From TrEMBL:
It comes from Pontibacter akesuensis. It catalyses: a ribonucleoside 5'-diphosphate + ATP = a ribonucleoside 5'-triphosphate + ADP; a 2'-deoxyribonucleoside 5'-diphosphate + ATP = a 2'-deoxyribonucleoside 5'-triphosphate + ADP. Its EC number is 2.7.4.6. GO terms for molecular function: ATP binding; metal ion binding; nucleoside diphosphate kinase activity. InterPro entries: NDK-like_dom, NDK-like_dom_sf, Nucleoside_diP_kinase. This is Nucleoside diphosphate kinase. It is an enzyme of class 2 (transferase). Residues 3-137 form the Nucleoside diphosphate kinase-like domain.
């Protein structure tokens, strides 16, 4: 059975460009409830750890630098079928392929600076949420 929790980050470019409100509005209007939320900045070491699954991919070094280049906004989100529905709401990794009406279509600048992260499985949603939030930060 699909879980009801996913995890997202608003990435450094989108935060720097003042799109926290616009993106959060699309998330809430998409039927997601914000369970936990914080603005924070990853060190390169923490970003490297978060994206460890990608460490063999050619873009890993650039991605770690980018994700630690400025503050991000991390959120745990709740909705039925959260992981799959959120992947639909954010759109394709490459904004050139993202569908109309998706967050990445509206806010992504490039395949790297693509505005938001979204968990790819229930298991990773738990791991990623736990990476940022303690139990007393979730409501
Ligand atoms: P996602 O699940 O849609 O975010 O995509 P992936 O898990 O495949 O990749 C993680 C993140 O790495 C993406 O969101 C992008 O920020 C970045 N990324 C993915 N593919 C590329 C690429 O080909 N080049 C660069 N520079 N960054 C990439
Ligand atoms: Mg991914």
């Amino acid at each position: 059975m699909a879980g009801n929790i996913t995890f997202t980050m608003i990435k450094p470019d989108a935060v720097a460009d003042n799109h926290i409100g616009g993106i959060t509005k699309m998330i809430e209007e998409g039927g997601f409830r914000v369970v936990a939320m914080k603005k924070t900045k990853l060190t390169e070491e923490r970003a490297g750890k978060f994206y460890e699954v990608h460490k063999e991919r050619p873009f890993y070094g650039d991605l770690v630098k980018y994700m630690s280049s400025g503050p991000i906004v991390a959120m745990i989100l709740e909705k039925d079928n959260a992981v799959e529905d959120f992947r639909k709401l954010i759109g394709a990794t490459n904004p050139a392929q993202a569908e109309e009406g998706t967050i990445r279509k509206k806010y992504a600048k490039s395949i790297e600076a693509n505005a938001v992260h979204g968990s790819d499985s229930d298991e990773n949603a738990q791991i990623e949420g736990d990476f940022y939030f303690s139990a007393d930060e979730r409501f």
